[in-house]
Specification:
This protein is α+β, with helices and mostly antiparallel strands. The chain is about 30% helix and about 25% strand. It is built from 13 helices and 25 strands. The strands form five sheets. Strands 1, 2, 8, 9, 10, 11, 17 and 18 form an eight-stranded mixed β-sheet that branches. The chain has an eight-stranded mixed β-sheet with strand order 6-5-13-14-15-12-16-19. A four-stranded mixed β-sheet has the order 23-22-24-25, covered by helices on one side.
Length: about 525
Amino acid sequence: MAYAYQPFDYIKPLGLTAPEPRQKVIIVGAGPIGLAMAIELANHGVQATVLDDNNVVSVGSRAICWSKRSLEILDRLGVGERSITKGVTWKVGRTFHRDTEVFNFDLLPEDGHKMPAFVNLQQYFVEEYLVQRAQELNIDLRWKNRVISVDQLPDFATVTVETPDGRYTLEADWVIACDGARSPIREMMGLEFDGELFEERFLIADIEMQGDFASERWFWFEPSFHSGQSALLHKQPDNIYRIDLQLGWDTDPEIEKRPERVIPRIEKVVGHSDFKLDWVSVYTFQCRRLRSFFHNRVLFVGDSAHVVSPFGARGGNGGLGDVDALGWRLAAVVQGVASAEVLTGYDRERCFGADENLLNSSRSTHFMSPENGVERLFRDAVLHLAGHADFARPMVNSGRLSRPCVYPLQAPDAPLPTESRPGAVAPDAPLEDGWMTETLGRDFVLLALGCDAPAISLRVVTPKLTDILRKRYLGDQQQALYLIRPDQVVAARWLSASAAEVEAALAQSWKGALCL
């Protein structure tokens, strides 16, 4: 069943007839990242105004693979359960060379997590859920409000907005650009991406059909059914399937999008013609980012700050990582709890995260589309060996799938399990009355395991030790203290610590200082 696009109501803004009060935060772009940013700020007590030049959710499924960490973030925003219920849950990926499976993986081989490894869910559903959640929180969503200029002063910024009824201006303490890979805000400010542009084209097609394909990720190198170098198949809700086909740089994108070109290709993939073409696009991709995501009064988040190839599901998931790192910091600045200097911590951490995504994405792309010479010889040798040699199979790279980066924080540490080290997202675990991710909440907390916490003003969490909780947080130790940030990243950990040591680590954790 094809998705029914319903327009959102345009409401004539007050600024057309009289000056409006200065906004605390303006968010430009009501895609999943802009909406998530607004909801995250609202969760911290800060109301933002969201401006978007459109009045419908994104056309086509676009981003479809939402990682475990992204689902945890969406859960905190109030749409996690709904996304899981609607989405197709999966954790197994299979890679084929021609018609032979050469490698497979299980992204979540152990139990004890609230969220699955991945859920396939079309971007338009995620946006719809986020819009509804934003409306529940009375967030000011302004549809058909296109930002046409941004001017910065030392203490605020001014945006000029065009609407169906004319232009008006708004002032804001902070402007967050969530306006996508072709960011008009970035262009207005004369900012350029650094990185690599790949000369390759891929066809994306969403088709509606009744099928019995497994809820898994299937990727082919040199498939027998397609003349290109690679193909990818994902199952989505409502009998929608995503198919990616590598076309080559010398193809004409306008010609390749024509149904008479697309349909025969899809027939070869699925083996029949009993399907309906739902959405088609031909894309090229790049692995690039801004040098900095923080420019005076303007902050860049998501694709406006960094873009990667789609293989590995790092675009939307990386953008939600940006939201996670920025929301609590910016809310503290707006509320006067912290100075604007803490926003440099967002910049440092998410530039680090973007670089990790760019590196993995570039490696995947070079493996999938090798240059003639050494790259191709290596790729072909790995695929040949992977069919019968175990050691070669992990070297097959069809897109290392998204996972949260571990920030190399300058922070107190102790001989405790690696998965819960400083800089990592605190691992989930089942508790007697819920889950660790639910218990940590949205503020700094001190987690006391097997011991008493020092007298400190922070909220203290002392869960009963379950076997999984002990394994992920204590290992062979009997007790530990963990300082957890509002984005659920481990800020510091000790076997024991005084109140002064915890306070010092708390002060340091605002800065996002990295060991680089």
